[in-house]
Write a structure and sequence with these properties.
Radius of gyration: 22 Å
Shape: globular
Helix content: 55-70%
Order of helices and strands: HHHEHEHEHEHEHEHHEHHHHH
Number of strands: 7
Strand content: 5-15%
Number of helices: 15
Length: 433
């Protein structure tokens, strides 16, 4: 993308930020009559649609066992597993060993590990593993090759020949029969892509990993609900299976965004390619273990989430997607990105003017929905690691934890609006569990 495109993002960020500031301040300054009644009415709409999405998961619980049947060898497609790895000495050996133990015909499975400019022992470990596993294909990129994870994945695509691509992170863990079951799911649903539900492997490590586990469960609940109601689902980077031809037709991975998965999700939606959500078996991964790593990760997610809406905004309001999909996207754009900024501005102004906040009903509604989805998702039967002590106190802690988005979103939006932006990819460090 050109420098003009980056300036366009910056301009859109500024406009978005200004609109949110105006919405947060104007009710206090203008003293709009019955504005609180209007806000409560909006809250009722928010809770109604949110509860519909959560309720749709009852169908998922009933039907999840349908995908345990395996396919005949002849029906299974050729599959390439691709892992972009940079400085993954703690987990890369375990990953390779587990990938080669998966149940899948060896003549239809290829495994590609991209050494994306590692500076630790990752290259040495991969060199040894390539001699141990004949079918392991190691692809090496220079550390300054550019494009981040997207660049690494696009580079690896040149070497692949499979009909389907499975993208994994270096800390990913799969059950042995995952590949057989996911393709049974693919063919029953005629999906162009499938996202495996993400679960936290180190869930019991500390309070932060517990909260992230509940957050992932909440996300999966809303994902399935959105898919059932509006036909919208999103990829999550790790554990995403994509038909290779569909991927190429969509332009492969965008090297000018910090979240290739979210960007690709919208392009698949615009091209009317269906993304399915598979609850079990999940892809298991490590959650970050400290606040610093959490905020670094969440800033990247927030920035990438906003970038996709700014980049494809015109297409999202065009005739390329259905009306219900526009409503769904608008609903989550407002709740995920606009509400945190508006609420923060509302809170600051209310303190300054010694007035009560005005948008609190919508914020409380959003947190309540999050709490219900977190509890439901965490208590659902699942094959991955589960929470052992799900109690009211833990639910309260998880809601307090989710409030970090009300800090991250405003901060990231301000940075995107004010500072010139260079595309930077910051990897999440993995310890190995």
């Amino acid at each position: 993308m050109s420098n003009g495109f980056y300036k366009n993002r910056r301009l859109k960020s500024t406009v978005f930020l200004c609109v949110c500031i105006i919405l947060g301040t104007s009710p206090h300054i203008l003293n709009i009559p019955n504005f609180l009644t209007f806000v409560i009415s909006i809250s009722l709409v928010v809770v109604s649609y949110g509860m519909i999405l959560i309720a749709k998961n009852s169908k998922r619980v009933i039907s999840s066992s349908l995908y345990k049947q395996s396919l005949n060898h002849e029906k299974l497609p050729s599959l390439d597993i691709i892992v972009a790895a940079r400085d993954e000495e703690n987990v890369i050996e375990r990953l390779v060993e587990r990938l080669f133990s998966l149940d899948y015909p060896s003549d239809k499975l290829n495994i590609y590990i991209i050494d994306d400019g590692s500076h630790d022992k990752t290259p040495l470990i991969l060199d040894r593993l390539s001699r141990e596993f004949d079918k392991l294909k190691v692809i090496t990129r220079a550390s300054n090759a550019g494009g981040g994870k997207s660049g690494a994945l696009n580079y690896a695509l040149k070497f692949t020949h499979g009909e389907w691509i499975l993208i994994l992170d270096a800390d990913a863990q799969l059950k042995k029969d995952t590949l057989l079951r996911v393709f049974s799911f693919v063919f029953q649903g005629s999906w162009s892509a499938v996202q495996l539900r993400k679960s936290v492997i180190n869930v019991s490590n500390n309070l932060l990993t517990v909260c992230q586990s509940m957050e992932m469960a909440m996300d999966a609940i809303f994902q399935y609900g959105r898919l059932s109601v509006a036909g919208i689902a999103e990829l999550r980077g790790n554990g995403q299976l994509i038909n290779k031809q569909v991927l190429i037709n969509c332009g492969s991975f965008n090297e000018d965004t910090v979240t290739d998965d979210l960007d690709l999700s919208l392009r698949l939606l615009i091209s009317k390619s269906k993304i399915g959500i598979m609850w079990d078996p999940p892809v298991m991964e490590e959650a970050v273990e400290n606040i610093s790593a959490l905020f670094s990760q969440r800033q990247r997610w927030a920035e990438g989430g906003l970038q996709r809406f700014f980049d494809y905004g015109k297409q999202l309001i065009s005739q390329k997607i259905e009306f219900i999909q526009k409503l769904d996207l608008g609903y989550f754009f407002i709740l995920q990105y606009a509400l945190p900024i508006i609420s923060m501005v509302d809170f600051i102004v209310s303190i300054t003017l010694l007035e009560a906040p005005i948008y609190w009903p919508i914020s409380i509604t959003a947190f309540t929905l999050s709490g219900i989805a977190s509890w439901y998702g965490s208590s659902c039967k699942s094959e991955g690691p589960v929470l052992k002590n799900l109690n009211p106190l833990m639910m309260l802690i998880s809601l307090i934890y989710l409030s970090h988005w009300f800090l991250v979103i405003p901060w990231v939006t301000i940075k995107m609006a004010i500072f010139p932006k260079k595309i930077l990819w910051k990897k999440t460090m993995h310890s190995g569990f």
